[in-house]
Amino acid sequence: MKKNIPSTIITAVIIGIILAFIGLGAHTLLLRNRPVQDTAAPQGGQRPGGGQRVATVVRVSPVVQDTIETRVMITGDVLAANQVAIFPTVAGRITRTNFQIGDRVNRGAVVAMVDPSRPGQVFSQSPVVSTVGGTILQIPVHVGDTVSTQTAIVVVGDLSSLMVETFVPERFTNAAQPGLEAQVTLEAMPGEVFTAIVDEVSPVLDPASRTVRIRLRFSGPRDPRIRAGMFATVSLVTNTRRDVPVIPRTSVISTYGSWVAFTVNEQNIAIRRQLNLGIESEHFVEVLSGLEIGEVVVSAGQNFLTDGDLVRIVE
C-alpha cells in the first residue's frame, strides 16, 4: 500500500492541472462571447453614459499657397575668374624666378629666366613673360628644374573677381542654366550664406564622371574674406513650383506605398486624407490633391492618430 501512495498523489496532481486548463479555456470562451459595448464617442467627445473620450495632443499647420523649390547640394572650389598659366618659349633649365606666390605682376613682366644651353652649346638665357596682369597664384617649378615648352612656370590670376567651379550630376544638367541663382557656403565661414549666379555651363558631359562643369560668380560686392582655393558647398535649385498648396513634411505619413495626412474639423475630430504629392524641399512638400488651401493638417502627433479620433490642439 505504501508504494501506491506516491502514484495516487501524482495522478491527482495531473488531474488537477487538466481541470485548471479546462476552467481557463471556459473562462476565455465566455469573455469572447460577451457583447462588446460601443466605446466610440459621438461628436463632442462624449462616451455613452456621460464619460469623456481621451483626446490626443497634436500640433497643426495650415495648408498655404506658396512657392516651393527642390535643391541639389554639390561641392566645388573657389577660383580666380581669370586664371592663366604662363609657359616658356624655349626648353631648358630654370635659372631664376623673379616673383613669389602672392606678388602682383603686370602684363609683360619677366617672371623667370630659362637657360636653353646644352652640352657643347651655349645660348643666351630666355625670359618667361607674363601674358596677363594679376597675382601669382602658383609657382610649380624651382630654380634648377629642367622644363619644356609645355611646362607651366607660374599661374597668374585676377583675384578682383572670384568664381566657384563645380560639377553637376547628369540628371540635373537641364536645370543648370546660365542665370540660375544658387546659394554658396564656405568651410572657412560656417553659418554664412553667399548668393551666386551660374555664369558658365560646359556644353559637353565628362564621360568618365557623367557630370557637367559649371562656374558661378558671386553676386553683390566682393567679400575680402573669400579667397581663391577655398572649399565651397553649392545649393543649386533644380525645380521650382509657384503658387501651389504646400504643407510641412512632418505632416505626411507613408502607409503601404501611399501618403496620408490628418485634417482637424471644427469639432476637433481628426480626419484621414489620402494625398498625391509633388516636389518637396527641405521642410515642405507640394500637395497635388487631397487637401485644399486653408484646411488645417496635423504636423506633430499624427503617428498616434486614427480616423475619427478626438484631438487637443496645442501651440
Protein described:
- The chain has 1 helix and 19 strands.
- Helix content is 10%, strand content 48%.
- The protein has 4 domains: 36 residues; 84 residues, conserved putative lor/sdh protein from methanococcus maripaludis s2 fold (Beta Barrel), CATH 2.40.420; 91 residues, Elongation Factor Tu (Ef-tu), domain 3, CATH 2.40.30.170; 65 residues, RNA polymerase II/Efflux pump adaptor protein, barrel-sandwich hybrid domain (OB fold (Dihydrolipoamide Acetyltransferase, E2P), Beta Barrel).
- The chain has 315 residues and is mainly beta.
Helix fraction by DSSP (H/I, runs of at least 4): under 10%
CATH topology of the largest domain: Elongation Factor Tu (Ef-tu), domain 3
> How many separate structural domains?
4
CATH superfamily of the largest domain, by name, is Efflux pump adaptor protein, beta barrel domain
Structural class: mainly beta
**How big is the Rg?**
38 Å
What is the approximate shape?
elongated
Let me know the number of strands.
19
Class of the largest domain in CATH? Answer: Mainly Beta
Low-pLDDT segments, ≥5 res: 35-51
What is the average of the pLDDT values?
A: 85
